[in-house]
Amino acid sequence: MAEAIALIDYGAGNLHSVYNALNAAGAEHVTVTADPRLVRGAKRIVLPGVGAFGACREGLWSIPGMIEALQDSVIERRVPFLGICVGMQLLADRGLEHGTHEGLGWIPGEVHKIERTDPNIRVPHMGWNDVALTAHHDDHDLIEEGEAYFLHSYHFAAQDGADVAAMTDHGGGIVAAVARDNIVGVQFHPEKSQAYGIDLLKRFLEWKP
Fold first, then answer.
1. Domain, as residue range, for 68
2. I want to staple 69 with a disulfide (CB 3.0 to 4.6 A). Which of 39, 54, 60, 119 is the partner?
3. Contact 50, 83 (CB under 8 A)
4. What are the backbone dihedrals phi and psi of residue 184, each rounded to the nearest 5 degrees, phi first?
5. So what's the pLDDT on residue 1?
6. pLDDT tens digits for range 68-99
7. CB atoms within 10 A of CB 96
8. CA 165, CA 186: separation in Å to the nearest integer?
9. CATH number at residue 46
10. Which of these is catalytic: 56, 58, 191, 206?
11. Nearest Cα residue to 21 out of 3, 7, 41
12. Contact 64/58 with Cβ under 8 angstroms?
């Protein structure tokens, strides 16, 4: 039987593109769902996210039972989890976009606006950029070096450097990927990153944290 993968629909993700990318990576049973029961039964979970932190947070928290289902699956039963863009930022303790908004708190840190320290640097950070591994990447065998597509104005400031699996440079260091145990989040968009992104999703489908 094909392994069930829950792609969470909370009104804030590029679902069609992520769904197609997962299928291109070899997934056989991807379910786009807002049903906490299906999330509890999934063998892998993907949380996409596009837009403002607060709006994404409100959308996810507004689904009855969803946060409890995610907590049970990801934290208690250690189901492999991938967060994409704002789906990655929601792993933080809080986001500071248009106010202060509580995150899932699975990877300690805050989400801050990218500061323009160089007038030649544009915000949002948009387009292709390098993904460079950190000294801690060996702890998480999912991320590899390469080039990926980014589109964001806020970035994840992790409290513990050991949770940072990869960085990129946009007028200074920006976290490109975080990872802890069975949880990985990427600031870039695998579904827009061509071969690099598909390869990442292939590894996620085979990942046994």
1. 5-206
2. 39
3. no
4. -130, 140
5. 41
6. 999 999 999 999 999 999 999 999 999 999 99
7. 16
8. 9
9. 3.40.50.880
10. 191
11. 7
12. no
* Given 98, 145, 189, 206, the catalytic residue: 189
Residue 56 among the catalytic residues:
no
- Please report the pLDDT score of residue 121 as a whole number: 83
Residue 111: beta bridge partners?
95, 156
Q: Are the beta carbons of 101 and 53 closer than 8 angstroms? A: yes
Q: What's the domain count of the chain?
A: 1
Is-catalytic flag, 191? yes
Residue type, 31: T
Catalytic residue, chosen from 85, 97, 110, 140, is 85
> Closest Cα partner for 179 from 208, 142, 205, 132?
142
The pLDDT assigned to 137 comes to 61
> Which stretches in the chain have pLDDT values below 70?
1-2, 137-140
Among the listed residues 138, 132, 178, 181, the one whose alpha carbon sits nearest the alpha carbon of residue 155? 178
Cβ neighbors of 140 (< 8 A, separation 6 or more) are 165, 179, 180, 184, 209
Quick one: tokens of 21? 């990318």
